Amino acid sequence: QKEVEQNSGPLSVPEGAIASLNCTYSDRGSQSFFWYRQYSGKSPELIMFIYSNGDKEDGRFTAQLNKASQYVSLLIRDSQPSDSATYLCAVKTVRGSTLGRLYFGRGTQLTVWP
Amino acid sequence: GAVVSQHPSRVICKSGTSVKIECRSLDFQATTMFWYRQFPKQSLMLMATSNEGSKATYEQGVEKDKFLINHASLTLSTLTVTSAHPEDSSFYICSARDGTPNNSPLHFGNGTRLTVT
């Protein structure tokens, strides 16, 4: 399995604060990066994907990618208690026999307290 | 959006029996589906890549004779856990994409919670 590393947390932030989730990956050739949210006992749901260096914003969520540093992050602005979940970073391979496969980090558990 | 349906959502079986899990793409055709397994508080681990009309590709360490995958049509892939043991108890999740590999994310089924007693 390709290495995708995340701080497992738990990360705890107050309601209304910015939550910052980080992820690093080992395959320098990776080109597609995804953030999924997973509630306990449920399957992951896609929040954002990013392909290019820089920032990508969607509502309260901003994904940041730095391919040189092999680093991708997710910022959640105005955090809400309903954002409390495990956030999974995923990296898609683009080379060789593993083309197109998605590998996940362990996930960061986020708790937003009222 | 793309919908992936997985069935059953929960199954309890006795050790030694086999369990079949179905994964369907409801509103798109999926030439490739992926099967993941997740143990409590662990990440999703890719088990195998299911290819329509051909043999599945298994990740290192996954027993292909134990986890049988069939992808007979563009909308259906099945995973059969054969001779299940308690250590096979886990959350199994299938996924599929509705576009080419480089520009479409995966859509996940709701998962199957397998408990082997």
Features:
heterodimer, A: 114 residues, mainly beta, six-stranded mixed sheet, five-stranded antiparallel sheet, B: 117 residues, seven-stranded mixed sheet, 0% helix, globular
Describe this structure in words.
The complex is a heterodimer of chains A (114) and B (117). Chain A is 0% helix and 54% strand. Chain A is built from no helices and eleven strands. In chain A, strands 2, 4, 5, 9, 10 and 11 form a six-stranded mixed beta sheet that branches. In chain B, 0% of the residues lie in helices and 51% in strands. Chain B contains no helices and eleven strands. Chain B starts with a strand and ends with a strand. The A-B interface holds A 1, 4, 31-32, 34, 36, 41-46, 49, 51, 88, 90, 92, 94, 97, 99-107 and B 6, 32, 34, 36, 42-46, 49, 57, 59, 91, 93, 95, 97, 101-103, 105-111, 113.
Number of helices of chain B: 0
- Oligomeric form: heterodimer
Overall pLDDT metric of chain B: 90
Calculate the mean pLDDT score of chain A and round it.
Answer: 90
Give the largest chain-chain interface (CB within 8 Å): A-B, 28 and 27 residues
Write down how many β-strands of chain B occur, each being a DSSP E stretch of 2 or more residues: 11
- Structural class by secondary-structure content of chain A: mainly beta
Apparent shape of chain A: globular
- How large, in whole angstroms, is the Cα Rg of chain B? 13 Å
In short:
The complex is a heterodimer of chains A (114) and B (117). Chain A has strands at residues 4-6, 11-14, 19-25, 32-38, 45-50, 54-58, 61-66, 71-76, 85-92, 102-104, 108-113. Chain A has 114 residues and is mainly beta.
